[in-house]
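Internal tracking record. Fields below are filled automatically when a chain is submitted to the structure queue. Please do not edit lines marked as system-generated. If the sequence contains nonstandard residues, flag them in the REMARKS field before resubmitting.
Queue: standard
Priority: normal
Entity type: single polypeptide chain
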Amino acid sequence: MSNRLYIRGTTAAPLPVSFEALALAAVARWGCAATVVRRRPPFHVEVEVQVDPPGGSGFQIDYLRTRTAISTDALPDRWPEVAAWARALVPDDGRRLIAFDAAMTLHVDLLPGMRPADVASAVVDHGTPGWEERDPEVAALFGRDGRSP
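SYSTEM-GENERATED OUTPUT FOLLOWS
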């Protein structure tokens, strides 16, 4: 497991969330603990949100310029909170949204209405034999479908 979590659809389609909506939602969720920064090219990130909660460990949320992924460097114990928050931003338009760590050792299907506890209990550990057969779409996304070296 790595210390970066990615939230994205299973296709390359952009997420239907504007940069402004993400920034406003971050301030609404974390209040004055959130600092929003807009980046200009050549940065691959359009919006950076630094969250420094009182008495807690700070973390950053990035929204890629391509709008294909949201990521965070939060510690793993905060991942369910950030993933549930990000899922709530994306309208339920039928797309499959997943969260996964940078090392691709786990993933979670992010369903509409999930709370942090739901996210935490739905983790699929990629060390568990047979996960690829049960979820060939995610296995293919990670190059573990038997067709990739």
